[in-house]
Amino acid sequence: MSKIMAVNAGSSSLKFQLLKMPEEELITSGIVERIGMKKSVFSIKVNGDKIEETTTIPNHGNAVNLLLEKLIEHDIIASYDEIAGVGHRVVHGGDKIADSVVLDEEKIKYLEGIIDLAPLHLGPNLTGIKAFQKVLPMVKHIGVFDTAFHQTMPEEAYLYAVPYDWCKNYKVRKYGFHGTSHKFITERFAEMTNKNVEDVNLIIAHIGNGASICAVKNGKSIDTSMGFTPLEGIPMGTRSGNIDPAVVEYMMKVKKKSVKEILNYLNKQSGYLGVSGLSSDSRDLVEATKKGNHQAKLAIDVQAKRITDYISSYNNYIGGADAIIFTAGIGENAKYTRANIGKRLSGLGVEIDDERNDCRGIEKKISTDNSKIDVYVIPTNEEVMIARDTLSLI
Ligand code: AMP
């Protein structure tokens, strides 16, 4: 039995889960928030109860020290030696990292060299990794990358139709994200259906606050909706998804704003929030839709339309999917949204069963027995995927 720590470090937060492996049992989870701000907050689950305290945590190093001390204080571990390895979620692996890797000096150096590809996330990820390596130098640290699963995309799928040297010299191409989730779902579907992963053909709709669709052929990602950054693809909680890039220059002119400000609108003020003018949260929009709010319904419909565009096109690209999978916050929980998408797939012969669709957060087939493509809800678990890869690499 090994205890593996799965870590997700952001600019001012650090989420962690401690898992018992290979049993894949969650021992505890927690989060350090507002690192470097006046009042930092640390919370941890102990025997199912959330314990929260407000304290001062100046940097990620202090956050790591504190969380390890708390594991001992709450009798979750007796000493640091019990932690067999640490798996770090890393947002970007560039075009060289196609799988999870041991984070040695050379890999860290490579990641530092590609920080510009994801400046808001990769910097904080590296800060978290270094802080953990300093406090736990005796164990292996593993990087699990959001982009890695999509490194199997063929050139025709990842290349933008821009001057070829943009890709060759500046690494401008589609990378895709949510790879850890798409990989987890692919493996889980193989397990559920007693198939080899190499025989699995899927369309995965990971719809949460961030959202992406993935085309999986023979167990491998061959296309996905997110691109150079997680802004491309379908509309999300606050992100626009695809727009004509010429809108950027036009809106800069009429609003007298900088590129940065317009991109901020596209990342933070668009999607559900932008169209509804109400909220980025799907629960608020579903509720308002039921009360007759036109813009809330429109926000859900604009997204549903784009999701079904991707699903239809990916179904063709993979030559016919075994199944369509809904996952993440909205995919797992929002039956209204799933039904709304299902209705729009009638051209593919998809039929959602209302009664089966009346579920939340569980693994379930939600299509009718007549549906030409099976549709499932499968809860994703990125932390388990991180812990699996970490275990196999230590
Ligand atoms: P995630 O980013 O995967 O955590 O997903 C967050 C999204 O899931 C938010 O938009 C939530 O409103 C949505 N969500 C969670 N539970 C429900 C629910 N019961 N019904 C509708 N949406 C939900």
What is the H-and-E element order? EEEEEHEEHHEHHHEEEHHHHHEHHHEEH
Q: pLDDT under 50 segments (min length 5)? A: none
> Can you summarize the main beta sheet?
8 strands, mixed
Name the bound molecules.
adenosine monophosphate
Q: Which fold does the CATH topology of the largest domain refer to? A: Nucleotidyltransferase, domain 5
What is the number of strand segments? 14
What would the principal axes of the Cα set say about the shape? globular
The CATH architecture category of the largest domain equals: 2-Layer Sandwich
CATH superfamily of the largest domain: ATPase, nucleotide binding domain
**Percentage of residues assigned to helices:** 25-40%
What portion of the residues fall into strands of 2 or more residues? 15-25%
In which order are the strands of the major sheet placed?
5-4-3-2-1-6-8-7
Rg for CA atoms: 21 Å
Number of helices: 15
Count of domain modules: 2
CATH class of the largest domain: Alpha Beta
Q: Quote the distance from N terminus to C terminus.
A: 13 Å
User: What is the residue-mean pLDDT, rounded to a whole number?
Assistant: 96
Which secondary-structure class do the elements indicate? alpha/beta
Account of the 3D structure:
The structure is a single chain. The strands form two sheets. Strands 5-4-3-2-1-6-8-7 form an eight-stranded mixed beta sheet, with helices on both faces. Strands 11-10-9-12-14-13 form a six-stranded mixed beta sheet, sandwiched between helices. The chain folds into two domains: 2-145, ATPase, nucleotide binding domain (Nucleotidyltransferase, domain 5, 2-Layer Sandwich); 195-382, Nucleotidyltransferase, domain 5 (2-Layer Sandwich). Helices cover 39% and strands 21% of the residues. It is globular and about 60 Å long. The two termini are 13 Å apart. A hairpin with a 4-residue loop joins strand 1 (2-9) and strand 2 (14-21). The chain is α/β, with parallel strands linked by helices and 394 residues long. Helix 6 (179-192) crosses helix 15. The model has no long low-confidence stretch (mean pLDDT 96). The chain has helices at residues 60-73, 105-113, 119-135, 155-158, 164-170, 179-192, 246-255, 259-268, 271-276, 282-290, 294-317, 328-333, 335-343, 354-357, 382-393; strands spanning 2-9, 14-21, 25-33, 40-46, 49-55, 83-90, 101-102, 140-145, 202-207, 211-217, 220-224, 323-327, 364-365, 374-377. The longest helix is centred in the last third of the chain and has 24 residues, at 294-317. It binds adenosine monophosphate. Adenosine monophosphate binds at residues 208-209, 237, 281-283, 286, 328-330, 333-334, 360.
